[in-house]
């Protein structure tokens, strides 16, 4: 754990993500339930899909960010899990986190371009006239936060790798204090 992970910002961000997950999942559930009930009662619930999609977008992207925070997102690390602790496992963790960060930044750049495009086009939903930037901004937010967490965890892995494998090797290879006196 590094200094950043002990800050109020780190704790507040994780609490914000948890609150957002709870709120958006409740909204998705309530809106879906209301749609089923109104359909059964032949009541027109016009435009609920627009709000449902916004909530679902935010739920998904908050879940992406929170999964990155917990480091519990889907990974292709079956080999790493089965490997014994050591140099190769530490190196593969760095490679995996580097690739996660690189791909996250690529997707983040695409999300930023999409966000800019929705602002320029000024698209709105057909019924409620909600700007499309409301749902598209979830991509930008979620990928920014996920990339931030990937960068922090990559830093931690590199620091751990250096501490375990590089400085240990330097200490073994360097002459001891006893020889210096001879």
Automatic annotation (TrEMBL):
The keyword tRNA-binding does not apply. It is a multi-pass membrane protein. One of its GO terms (biological process) is C4-dicarboxylate transport. Keywords: Cell inner membrane, Cell membrane, Membrane, Transmembrane, Transmembrane helix, Transport. The chain crosses the membrane at residues 21-45, 51-69, 90-112, 132-155. Belongs to the TRAP transporter small permease family. This is TRAP transporter small permease subunit. It comes from Sinanaerobacter chloroacetimidivorans.
């Amino acid at each position: 754990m590094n200094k950043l992970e002990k800050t109020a910002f780190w704790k507040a961000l994780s609490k914000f993500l948890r609150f957002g997950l709870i709120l958006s999942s409740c909204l998705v559930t309530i809106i879906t339930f209301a749609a089923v009930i109104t359909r059964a009662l032949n009541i027109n619930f016009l435009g609920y899909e627009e709000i449902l999609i916004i909530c679902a977008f935010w739920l998904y992207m908050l879940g992406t960010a929170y999964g990155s925070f917990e480091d519990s997102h889907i990974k292709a690390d079956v080999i790493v899990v089965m490997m014994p602790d050591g140099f190769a496992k530490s190196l593969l963790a760095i490679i995996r986190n580097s690739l996660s960060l690189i791909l996250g930044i690529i997707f983040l750049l695409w999300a930023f371009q999409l966000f800019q495009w929705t602002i320029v086009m000024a698209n709105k939903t057909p019924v409620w006239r909600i700007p499309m930037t409301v749902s598209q901004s979830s991509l930008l937010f979620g990928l920014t936060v996920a990339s931030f967490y990937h960068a922090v965890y990559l830093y931690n892995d590199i620091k751990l790798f250096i501490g375990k494998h590089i400085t240990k090797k330097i200490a073994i290879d360097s002459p001891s204090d006893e020889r210096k006196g001879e």
